[in-house]
Specification:
The chain has helices spanning 12-24, 38-47, 58-63, 79-88, 103-116, 131-141, 168-185, 272-275, 277-294, 302-321; strands at residues 3-8, 28-34, 53-54, 69-72, 92-95, 121-123, 148-156, 189-195, 211-217, 222-228, 236-243, 247-249, 257-260, 263-266, 325-326. It is an alpha/beta fold. The protein binds NADP nicotinamide-adenine-dinucleotide phosphate (NAP). Residues 8-14, 34-37, 40, 58, 73-76, 78, 96-97, 124, 126 line the site of NADP nicotinamide-adenine-dinucleotide phosphate. The site of NADP nicotinamide-adenine-dinucleotide phosphate has 22 residues, from helix 1.
Amino acid sequence: MTLNIGVIGTGAIGREHIRRITNNLSGGKIVAVTDVNPEAAKSAVEQFKLDAVVYPDDKSLVAAPNVDAIVITSWGPAHEASVLAGIAAGKYVFCEKPLATTAEGCKSIVEAEIKHGKRLVQVGFMRRYDRGYEQLKQAIDNRFIGEPLMIRAAHRNPEVDDNYTTDMAITDTLIHEIDVLHWLVDDDYTSVQVIYPKKTRHASSHLKDPQIIMLETKGGIAIQAEVFVNCKYGYDIQCEIIGEEGVAKLPEVPGIVYRKEAQLGVDLLMDWKQRFIDAYDRELQDFIDSIKATGEPKGPTSWDGYIAAVTADACVKAQASGVKEAVTIGDKPAFYQNVVHQ
Ligand code: NAP
């Protein structure tokens, strides 16, 4: 059986997902597309030679009887309405982050999905499908390094444009660490504080860069996450777990080691799209395969989308206040207790 998919939003990542579902993955077919700009939707159909209908809006695409699943890749503020429409129609939903732009919006999605009675939604937190993070999780789960005590993480981009604002360091950048770090240690955040080191001269006048975000978990793990989006030298994702009996570190991206002109070196990536390209393939393949095998997706849940939104809100509050702010998540509903990702 082929999973018939409709794509809402045919911009950059929408087209990337259309390309991978059409050319790289198995078991899924793009049968419908829509975009606020109908010409963009039409051009995506032409670009990928799709046998797909262009719908005028998300509601009509969701209602199409041959659409089994929707992939939401429109801009963030439009996600919530499309996800809720998908759930109301009983369609499977793969939603790029953010699930909704507010914690309340994510909560209403959680409630709608629980009321529906079956898991329908997967959120596009693709780092959980990166092989390096998977290995790190295995090392933590089997207590190879003992109980995790501390985490040091860094998210560095070579540069950002002038539209990038201080809060986007949380909502666009740290959001991936927010998701993957609590998943790695299977714990919830309880507090956050943000401090600003000396500012780089490469940041625009309105942007605070770098930033250090210090999170604590219910179990007492202390996390120090750095966001530095004008680091100049490359796109660099670091993660180190310090445990009672050892340390486990995210592997470096493999590359040829050069010896030249009295130097030993490896090329670094400059473009974030390349870093997790394999993980994007694997998350969508898992979405398709899990639905076909079990009737439910098993990737990051609506509850994970809610955790990310609540934590991001507290981080943004801490950016402004400079003091420790509480992260109040609440208990995971039983509905989401037994979801096994990998
Ligand atoms: P983008 O290039 O601006 O694409 C968004 C597309 O959706 C545009 O064509 C936009 O049209 C269209 N759109 C906006 N509102 C819509 C609506 N109500 N219905 C249908 N189409 C609508 O942005 P992008 O970079 O692809 O990002 C899309 C989403 O993916 C964002 O939420 C972003 O955060 C997320 N994302 C996630 C990752 C990741 O690492 N997981 C990476 C990149 C992006 P107009 O251009 O005419 O407004």
